[in-house]
UniProtKB/TrEMBL annotation:
Top-level taxon of the source organism: Eukaryota
UniProt-listed PANTHER family: PENTATRICOPEPTIDE REPEAT-CONTAINING PROTEIN (PTHR47926), TETRATRICOPEPTIDE-LIKE HELICAL DOMAIN SUPERFAMILY (PTHR47926:SF376)
GO biological process: RNA modification
Molecular function (Gene Ontology), one example: RNA binding
Protein name per Swiss-Prot or TrEMBL: Pentatricopeptide repeat-containing protein
């Protein structure tokens, strides 16, 4: 987008991509995208990936995501509930 349209990458753009990739089952690709982001991923982005992990039953990547979310939002019980219900 930057090269073609001079639109800088924003966290919302990444969030949309992670959500779409996660729902489609491309969880490893979504994780790689998060790790390569030019901006710092927030809890919304990690939460989108966690939702995909729940949808597709991928506990391995969910553990990585939960570790990140515990650092970003240790008091948010919603993420803990999502993991418990996996």
């Amino acid at each position: 987008m930057v090269n073609d349209y001079s639109i800088p990458h924003k966290v919302g753009h990444y969030g949309c991509m992670v959500d779409l990739m996660s729902k489609a089952g491309f969880l490893r690709d979504a994780l790689e995208l998060i790790r390569s982001m030019e901006v710092e991923p927030n809890s919304i982005i990690w939460g989108a990936l966690l939702g995909g992990c729940k949808l597709h039953g991928n506990w391995e990547i969910a553990q990585v995501v939960v570790n990140e979310l515990m650092v970003l939002e240790p008091n948010n019980s919603g993420y803990y509930n999502l993991v418990v219900n996996m």
